[in-house]
Amino acid sequence: MDTLKVLKEKSQKRRQLLAQQLGAGSSENLSLVLGSQDDRNACSAFKKPKKESFTAICAENVREETGVIKQSPSSHNPPDEESDDVSEVRTYTDSSTFLKGTQSANPHNDYCQHFVDTGQRPQNFIRDVGLADRFEEYPKLKELIRLKDDLIAKKATPPMYLKCDLENFDFRDLNCKFDVILVEAPLEEYQRTYGMTNMKFWTWEEIMKLDIEEVSAPRSFIFLWCGSSDGLDLGRQCLRKWGFRRCEDICWIKTNINNPGHTKNLEPRALFQRTKEHCLMGIKGTVRRSTDGDFIHANIDIDLIISEEPEYGSIAKPEEIFHIIEHFCLGRRRLHVFGRDVTVRPGWLSIGPALTNSNFNGETYNSYFNKGPEDFLTGCTERIEALRPKSPPPKSKGGGPGGNNRGGNSRGGGNRARMNSRGRGSHRGRQ
């Protein structure tokens, strides 16, 4: 009896919560909101129907719900004859028929349910995620990206690469301090999610032992791919050990347009499928968006990448991460740790055991940045400076026009009046 009482109390609480969600007021009105009371009234009206009228009612209900009905041979009988056969209907292939009780204004646009039915992930239906058509509706941003890409390509150093065993490699042998470091380690997590067995996987303890702090410039950034599970916490510990502060989290949302399904990337004891991956961004030194325009251009890209996941067994990352880094940081000394042959890129030095060859020469590489005190920077043009979104300068402590406003003498050469006029409209996620 106690168990029955507890079950009744839980049932009553569920009804109350459901009534609150549906706006029914009280649990007594649930039958009216869900239509169950009308259904019972309709059923009571047909307690003793004629067999042919019952068949007609079933056929009408099926036609109303699915629009498809398969006639049985008895449907060709004259109306005066009674038949014991009921019309056969098709097997339901999705759940659209049973969505009348949902809270959505248009339940047929339920992308989560669409994933259950077809295996197509909800992110597959986000528009304009590619680099080619993302800025079609924003001509100024499109021009800005084009101008920056042209300048980056013009100032990029020839691609260099060094095959080495990172477990025993001394980073000081590179004899260079880097403005940007991208770490793309083959995590143990990939062995579970991607089914890879043909390479050496790294634990977070081994990754933390890398001497990244030996090659990072006093003012620099790091980008660390950390997976989607325990790496989010352990990656932060690596950043602290290397002398960086976490300042951003770039998220890669993986689509499966070309190969939809439900059985990929399932981990043991996992309740949900993981369709995203994170790249932690760390900062070293003092870099402010409003005063360090010579070193960073903020507000150009967003912290989200939406692209097709690689084929099963591949640990490839989206190429867009290189575009985000190059658009953001104007430092030309860029290091890619755990690089591969397919990631060798102009303007980058790639090192790692997966490379098949080496062409790195320390003296030649450093000669690209020794021609002037600011030769390690990409630089800027007047048109780029006019187009790029600005961050508002910090408020002066003096509280007046004569105060020490640090945004006035920007190292990027920006016009303070123009920056003030932009206001806060150019926030980071505007595009």
UniProtKB/TrEMBL annotation:
<protein>
    <recommendedName>
        <fullName>N(6)-adenosine-methyltransferase non-catalytic subunit METTL14</fullName>
    </recommendedName>
</protein>
<dbReference type="GO" id="GO:0005634">
    <property type="term" value="C:nucleus"/>
</dbReference>
<dbReference type="Pfam" id="PF05063">
    <property type="entry name" value="MT-A70"/>
</dbReference>
<feature type="compositionally biased region" description="Gly residues">
    <location>
        <begin position="397"/>
        <end position="415"/>
    </location>
</feature>
<dbReference type="InterPro" id="IPR007757">
    <property type="entry name" value="MT-A70-like"/>
</dbReference>
<dbReference type="InterPro" id="IPR029063">
    <property type="entry name" value="SAM-dependent_MTases_sf"/>
</dbReference>
<feature type="region of interest" description="Disordered">
    <location>
        <begin position="67"/>
        <end position="89"/>
    </location>
</feature>
<feature type="region of interest" description="Disordered">
    <location>
        <begin position="386"/>
        <end position="431"/>
    </location>
</feature>
<dbReference type="GO" id="GO:0003729">
    <property type="term" value="F:mRNA binding"/>
</dbReference>
<feature type="compositionally biased region" description="Basic residues">
    <location>
        <begin position="419"/>
        <end position="431"/>
    </location>
</feature>
<keyword id="KW-0539">Nucleus</keyword>
<dbReference type="InterPro" id="IPR045123">
    <property type="entry name" value="METTL14-like"/>
</dbReference>
<dbReference type="GO" id="GO:0036396">
    <property type="term" value="C:RNA N6-methyladenosine methyltransferase complex"/>
</dbReference>
<comment type="similarity">
    <text>Belongs to the MT-A70-like family.</text>
</comment>
